[in-house]
Structure of Metallo-hydrolase/oxidoreductase:
Amino acid sequence: MKHLTIDPATSGLPTKDHVGTKAFPEAKTTKVHPSNAKEEDTNATLYFIGTATTLLEWEGLRILTDPNFLHAGDHVHLGPGVSAIRQTNPAIDIEELPRIDAVLLSHYHEDHFDRPVEDKLKRDLPIITTPHAKSCLTAKGEDSFTSVHALDFFESLQVDVKGSASQGDSQKKPSIKVTGMPGKHVPPGPLAVANDILKAVPPTNGWMIELGYSSGPEQFDNGYRIYISGDTLMIDELKEIPERYKDQSIDLMLIHLGGTTIPGPSMPLLMVTMDAKQGVHLMQLIKPDLTIPIHYDDYDVFMSPLDDFRKAVVEAGLSDKVLYLDRKDQFKFNVRQGVGSSAGTEADLDLMATKVSTQAVG
């Protein structure tokens, strides 16, 4: 397993032009994982900025997901002949971000990593992403990003927090294990083959984020597990996830919805992210303790509104398994200690990757 050590004391502010230290953004509303802990017993926060952009804070470590800070009316390029117009504003602007220690980027698409963000971010800010995105971010000559870490499906990287120890046990250090999960932006078949040739829509990852404590290079105890679907459709490869974690709980799923349909609302030909129906099917497959939908209603190419998902959840009898966040809301939860070792080994991951490859060929 790969390792990345981060010292929050030296991370600094995320952009080249940041002026002054910014506090963690103030939330409009705070919601708590109901079966996990009371608010006063929580130790981690997820702040929803908009689209798939969230800010995760735990044990002094801050991770920003899929940074997209465009405003209503701004345009993004999503592929040859495909553009989209933002319909919403982010909860905060990029210049209002506090210190950021790392970015988790699901794929290299402008509604997840817009051009102003790419221009403004410091080049030494650690970014964990797909092999494709790494090749793009590191191929800019003197303007390349210098700390990009690529993960393919079922590959893992452990982020260790330097200079911190768990309360009551100086041998255990806070760590976050990030594992690439399967995802496909284009449905299998002739269109996927054509996309592989044209490279119109980039490859995408989901993520399994495990927050916990480590006492050695391969000794990691998970305390809270978050699955982020990424911009995927409902594909067979996702069935590997419950198999991989069949004896482990998934506490939270952040699901990318929207039913993104290209080339656009005037000609909706191809859906490339989950709609309400597929979102419910993914809940039934993964069976997380709680689901929070993100990546909804933000662009005009998002053809499946959040209200459709709400209705589908009710019809499926899953209302008690979903929590809804508006932009500028925060979600609090507790990362437990002493829960047990993280699921699987590198050999397990290699086996799963082999199965995925075999299924894809078949």
The chain is about 20% helix and 30% strand. Confidence is low (pLDDT under 50) at residues 343-362. The first strand starts at residue 2 and ends at 6. The radius of gyration is 19 Å.
